[in-house]
Design brief:
two-stranded parallel ribbon; 5 helices; 54% helix
Length: 107
């Protein structure tokens, strides 16, 4: 949120999604919130480490979003464990997408 304030985005311009239990739900809820408010563009801000998975999920649900990420040397060295976990999650999403559809309550 500090990034938004530094970029001159006022409190009245932020809409917070706080019901999701995971990244898939978060993107689906955000997409639906945007549709409800007539918002056509957004920027997703995350660590570059997460963007591959986020991009794949967003593309899978038809959510067109721009991305902003940051990466520094310290985070690169701490990411070995997280990379393994991220690959596990990515494969879970990939196989789940092939085997089942998104629950109707989230569409």
């Amino acid at each position: 949120m500090d990034y938004l304030l530094k970029a001159g985005i006022g409190e009245n311009k932020k809409i917070i999604e706080n019901q999701a239990k995971d990244t898939v739900e978060n993107l689906i809820y955000c997409r639906n919130i945007m549709k409800g408010h007539g918002i056509r563009r957004s920027i997703l801000i995350s660590n570059s480490f997460h963007l591959r998975r986020i991009w794949y999920i967003a593309k899978s649900i038809g959510f067109h979003v721009d991305f902003y990420c940051s990466r520094n040397t310290k985070t690169i060295f701490r990411q070995t464990f997280h990379t393994i976990n991220e690959l596990r999650i990515f494969m879970k999403i990939f196989w789940a997408n092939k085997e089942c559809s998104i629950p109707s309550k989230l569409k």
